Amino acid sequence: MGLRQRLLVASGLVLACTVATACSEGDPVTAERGGPGAKVETIGLMVQDLSNPFFQSMANGVQAAAEKIGATVNVQDGRQDLGAQNEQIDAFIQQQIDVLLINAVDSDGIGPAVDRAKEAGIRVVAVDVAARGAEAQVTLDNTAAGNLACTYLADQIGGAGDILLINGTPISSVQDRVTGCKQALQNYPQISIVAEQNGDNGRAEALTIATDMLTAHPDVKGIFGINDPTALGATLAAQQAGIGGLVIVGVDASPEAVAELQKPDSMFEATAAQDPNTQGAIALEMAQKLFAGEQLEEQSVLVPTEMITRENLAQYKGWQ
Question: Does the keyword Cytoplasm belong to this entry (predicted)?
Fold first, then answer.
């Protein structure tokens, strides 16, 4: 059975648990798990959107790390829905999993559900984005990613001109990227963000938003999208509007972004790399230590980033 099949089977188990009487009314949930020398046996991984290759790569990293310790992984797709993630956490509590790795769709809104999981004895580690109440977290240095991306954008447009910023959902990674971008642009007083609008982190919504923004501001020189799907949606919007010569940058260095960078005439010119596979593996390592009663050297780990452009694309290894 392949990885995706295993993930889908595992996903079905949680859904079954949410509707089965035995899960809701069976053995009482206990908070007495873990301790010195304890080994993790069951892992819950919750991601924002499993159809996004970024989160599939994250799942791959967790699965590979879990196999090394003989643990099982149950992956749940949050579908960008806070309510769904709340229900998934409650199902995990009933299943009495050992550790929960959570990629929240809403960093603050998931807090009460995280608290319920901890009260049930589950050790919780946030991955890629912060989650209120999580005991530890591993994320990309998103502020640096936004800073690098917008510094590159600013330099490519000659340090002057109007640009657009397509924002995203209320999660820490997105907010940090925007903060980093705006910090970078403080060094370029002749650059102005003439429009900023929130999307849903996806390509289709970004296409619609960017089309409207470009209609109102056809003379901009560049666009910063908070992730690659957003930036690629903006690229398509510019193409469809017949606008050329823009510099468009994103964050992720996803397979789709790599393919776009391989097109010499694309206006999508650069992306700040993420490593979801490594983030997932590190998050599980941190959760293991917490479950075994060990102290973490760091409660928050930042994975470094770098800009991927056409110039260094050949050296980029990509997601695993």
Answer: no
221 within some domain: yes
Domain residues for the domain of 126 are 3-134+276-304
- 125-134: pLDDT as tens digits: 999 999 999 9
**What CA–CA distance (Å, rounded) separates 214 from 192?**
15
DSSP 313: G
Whether 163 maps to a domain, the answer reads: yes
Looking at the structure, tell me whether residues 151 and 100 fall in a common domain.
no
Whether 310 maps to a domain, the answer reads no
Report the candidate in 82, 114, 123, 109 with the shortest Cα–Cα distance to residue 283: 123
- Do residues 228 and 205 touch, judged by C-beta distance below 8 A? no
Neighbouring C-alpha atoms within 13 Å toward the C-beta of 175: 10
C-alpha to C-alpha distance for 283 and 238, rounded to whole angstroms: 38
The proportion of the chain whose per-residue pLDDT surpasses 90, expressed as a percent, equals 85
> Of 10-19, 118-127, 185-194, where does mean pLDDT reach its minimum?
10-19
Assess whether 178 and 239 both reside in one domain: yes
Burial class of 269 by CB neighbour count within 10 A (0 to 12, 13 to 18, 19+) = buried
Give burial (CB, 10 Å; 0-12/13-18/19+) of 48.
buried
